[in-house]
């Protein structure tokens, strides 16, 4: 499973992890807001509740084709008895439930699908549930923004692969040393930098000594779109065996034309605001 993400709810750190495109929230962390010394006791008390079992059973029937309804009926009949106890692991083992997961150890804990976790939070504290939903929604909004930015970056990287493959096939003679190959790639990368930014990567670093990364990390959406187009165009020009100086002129002319169009496009402006 991916590494846990964390949100802060009323001074309580709550872990969130995603598996199979579903978000699971740590019930153990939620329980700590009410009973920091014995959070598992709170979860077991919640599982003893008949309303809780009805909720869990209905959720599993809606989302889990392998759920065992026979075992569920047996558990439900015992709910309410003084002798009835149930742990998350027992529930999962007996019924084949997937809405809960439980793992022992330092990095373990009991997690629940967000639908179930919100109900548990409401049982613990209505106030906590409302703040949990708010912080969870904020987390998902940030993920969507990051996803949009990653897609833009990946588009540029994919186009750059086309570009570098053309360099390798058309500009690099056989038997070059690794250092010579790197020099040719760097030269072509800076050709694009000059066409779009008017400076090489080294010149940018000298002008921006306090910034980390490279010139392209600070490009806006319009520049990233233009850069992707320039990479494809340069690959085509390389295949036509045009000299570098001539390609630079053509790329710079194209960059000027495209940036004029892109900076005036309201859809690009909207993406700029979301990035």
Features:
single chain, 275 residues, 2 domains, 65% helix, alpha+beta, five-stranded antiparallel beta sheet, elongated
Structure in words:
It contains twelve helices and five strands. α6 packs antiparallel against α7. With 275 residues, the chain is α+β, with helices and mostly antiparallel strands. Helices cover 65% and strands 10% of the residues. Strands 1-2-3-5-4 form a five-stranded antiparallel sheet.
**Strands of the biggest beta sheet: in what spatial order?**
1-2-3-5-4
Q: Give the rounded overall mean pLDDT.
A: 83
Number of domains: 2
Unreliable parts: none
- How much of the residues is beta strand, in percent? 5-15%
User: What is the string of helix and strand elements?
Assistant: EEEHHHHHEEHHHHHHH
Number of strands: 5
Summing up helix and strand content along with how strands pair, one would put the structural category as: alpha+beta
Q: What general outline do the C-alpha atoms trace? A: elongated
Radius of gyration: 28 Å
Separation, N- and C-terminal Cα atoms: 27 Å
How does the SSE layout of this entry go?
Layout: E1 5-9, E2 12-19, E3 22-26, H1 27-32, H2 39-48, H3 50-63, H4 69-78, H5 88-95, E4 100-103, E5 109-113, H6 114-124, H7 126-170, H8 178-197, H9 201-207, H10 221-239, H11 244-262, H12 266-274
Antiparallel strand pairs: 1-2, 2-3, 3-5, 4-5
Helix pairs in contact: 3-4, 6-7, 7-10, 8-11, 10-11
Pfam family, one: KilA-N
InterPro entries: KilA/APSES_HTH, KilA_N
Organism: Pontiella agarivorans
Short description:
Residues 3-139 form the KilA-N domain. InterPro entries: KilA/APSES_HTH, KilA_N. With 275 residues, the protein is α+β, with helices and mostly antiparallel strands.
């Amino acid at each position: 499973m991916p590494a846990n993400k964390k949100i802060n709810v009323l001074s309580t750190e709550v872990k969130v992890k995603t598996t199979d495109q579903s978000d699971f929230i740590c019930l153990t962390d939620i329980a700590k807001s009410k009973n920091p010394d014995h959070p598992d006791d709170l979860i077991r008390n919640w599982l003893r509740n008949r309303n809780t079992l009805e909720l869990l059973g209905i959720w599993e029937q809606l989302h889990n084709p392998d759920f065992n309804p026979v075992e569920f009926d047996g558990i439900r009949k015992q709910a309410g008895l003084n002798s009835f106890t149930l742990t998350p692991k027992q529930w999962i083992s007996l019924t084949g439930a997937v809405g809960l997961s439980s793992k022992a150890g330092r990095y373990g804990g009991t997690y629940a699908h967000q639908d179930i976790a919100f109900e548990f939070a409401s049982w613990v504290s209505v106030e906590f549930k409302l703040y949990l939903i708010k912080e969870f929604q904020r987390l998902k909004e940030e993920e969507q923004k990051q996803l949009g930015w990653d897609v833009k970056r990946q588009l540029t990287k994919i186009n750059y692969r086309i570009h570098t493959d053309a360099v390798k096939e058309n500009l690099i003679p056989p038997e070059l040393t690794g250092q010579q190959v790197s020099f040719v790639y760097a030269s072509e990368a800076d050709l694009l930098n000059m066409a779009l930014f008017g400076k090489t990567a080294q010149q940018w670093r000298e002008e921006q000594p306090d910034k980390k990364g490279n010139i392209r990390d600070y490009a806006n959406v319009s520049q990233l779109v233009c850069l992707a187009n320039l990479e494809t165009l340069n690959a085509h020009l390389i295949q036509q065996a045009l000299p570098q100086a001539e390609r630079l002129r053509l790329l710079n002319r194209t960059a000027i034309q495209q940036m004029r169009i892109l900076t005036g496009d309201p859809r690009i402006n909207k993406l700029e605001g979301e990035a």
